[in-house]
Amino acid sequence: MKTIINHPNHIIYASFNKELTSLDENIIFHILNQIKHINHFEEFKEYKSEKIQLKFKYLNINRNYKSIESTLKKLSNTSIDYSKNIPKHEKIERTITNFISGYRKTENKREVIIEIPGFTVEFLTYLKGGYSKLDFKHFISLKSIYSKRIYKLLIQFSDKGGFNISESKFRKIIGIENKYLRTSDLRKKINLVNKELKNKCEVEFNYKINKQKTNCYLSFKIINTNNSVALERNYQNKIRGNRDMFIFNFLKVFLSSNDSNQPQLITEQIIDSGNSEQFYNRVKRLKNELSTNNSKKTKNDVTNLLISTILPEYKVKINKSS
């Protein structure tokens, strides 16, 4: 069963991100998971501190307590600084707090109890400023800190299918303001992230780096995510998960003509037949083959292969008039 985290968008742009490591981010996500029941849209409400239990086996693959303790010490000194407008008073209320106020560990016990200040609970659970639905297991599985941050950024804009962002803002969010300064190096890093996201989260994107005289910006197109709007509104009843979205998007590329609903109808047939996993594996191998430099298949070749061989294998009926 999936665990979905409502992740406030303001966390993505917070200044403390540049101080965080991949393990730091994992611990913060475990915190978010355990206090998600407090998610709120009320800007002015007091919250009590929260004590939560964290097991080492979920925080560090090697269950290395020294590494975890070092991270907890850092988070206890990592400042969160946020402001709120006070209605009718034209004043701004500023709050400064830390991620955790303390932690407690019993000797020989492979877990730790941490205390989250009430101010931090307010910051981490406030959703009125916008939030994204992130897959907890997907996020934790990512090793690269850059993959984690780009994943959060992609999901924020998944309902729009993509976004444009200035290079300076992108670098600040990802934490590479003074790294990978050459465009070729930046491309290599983004390509590595794309590969990890595709393998571990079934999230894939295309991007361009657009250089202008006075500015440079990156343009991202999100190909496949669980929150993607690659489907038209009337396609959303059955086609929901990453696997089904992948099948739909693949068929849309090779079977769609203008105003054709064949990709939707075929995908729903595959879902109803219970063959979506087998079909997904089949077309994913085909897509990987197409992406290699040695592939000589054209779009027409793939379309003909689908119609003449692959779809009949799964007893899919094709509407010839579409």
From TrEMBL:
GO molecular function terms attached to this record: DNA-directed DNA polymerase activity
InterPro entries: Initiator_Rep_WH1, WH-like_DNA-bd_sf, WH_DNA-bd_sf
SUPFAM superfamilies: Winged helix' DNA-binding domain
GO BP of this protein: DNA replication initiation
Matching Pfam families: Rep3_N
Residues covered by the Initiator Rep protein WH1 domain: 5-154
Gene3D superfamilies linked: Winged helix-like DNA-binding domain superfamily/Winged helix DNA-binding domain
Record-stated family: Belongs to the initiator RepB protein family.
Record-given protein name: Replication initiation protein
Lineage: Bacteria, Pseudomonadati, Bacteroidota, Flavobacteriia, Flavobacteriales
